[in-house]
Design brief:
The protein has helices spanning 2-8, 112-116, and strands at 36-40, 46-52, 55-58, 66-69, 72-75, 78-82, 89-93, 99-105, 120-124, 129-136, 139-145, 148-156, 159-162, 165-171, 177-184, 187-194. It is mainly β. 21% of the residues are buried.
């Protein structure tokens, strides 16, 4: 059975050997150019890297990232590898070997003036449905139907997460909002155009 399995299933690549020790000689300051918000180039998912108490963290993960080199951090069994030539690009390398590319984005702004810019009605030809984006109590919400309002949590400029997915707004060449792309596990980058 194991020989058949080995033919059909790719073995998972070990990211860090069992005897791996963090490189404590790398100053946290060497990661400063890489801190900030990033967007997944395929799904729009976001991550935010920040420094606190002399360590680098990934927002949503309470454990510090472990330096493997001056351009690579370990996060669990996955790695974050920075493009040294272009500091605002990174690869998130999963334990399976799958690589997700991220690009640097401006940080999210959640002041009331910034949030009001997103308010409107949006329509998707793909799903033949409309949705409304509204503000309430200083937060942004997606309203699918009466009584169903889902809070959008800021990830990066124009990018938000919600339970089970992400959405990010797109703009025309004049920087005017024209709609958003939404991704959930079973559908990626579903376009909603701004109607009003």
């Amino acid at each position: 059975f194991s020989s058949v399995r080995n033919l059909l299933v790719q073995p998972t690549r070990t990211i860090a050997p069992a005897n791996f020790r963090p490189d404590t000689t790398i100053p946290v300051g060497s990661f400063t150019p890489y801190l900030g918000a990033y967007r997944n180039t395929k799904s729009g998912a976001g991550i935010v890297l920040y420094e606190s108490s002399g360590a680098i963290y990934f927002r949503g993960n309470s454990s510090p990232l472990i330096p493997m080199s001056a351009s690579e951090l370990l996060q669990g069994r996955s790695r974050i590898q920075f493009n040294v030539a272009m500091p605002r690009q990174l690869n998130f390398i999963e334990a399976s070997g799958n690589i997700e590319m991220y690009e640097g984005m401006d940080s999210a702004r959640s002041d009331s003036s910034s949030l009001r810019e997103y308010v409107g009605v949006y329509y998707s030809d793909e799903t033949e449905s409309a949705t409304e984006i509204l503000t309430k109590k200083g937060a942004l919400y997606l309203k699918r139907k009466p009584g169903l309002e889902i809070q959008l949590l800021p990830l990066y400029k124009d990018g938000f997460s919600f339970p089970g997915g992400v959405l990010y707004f797109h703009r025309d060449t004049t920087r005017k909002l024209t709609g958003f792309l939404a991704s959930i596990p079973r559908a990626r980058n579903v376009n909603f155009a701004r109607r009003k």
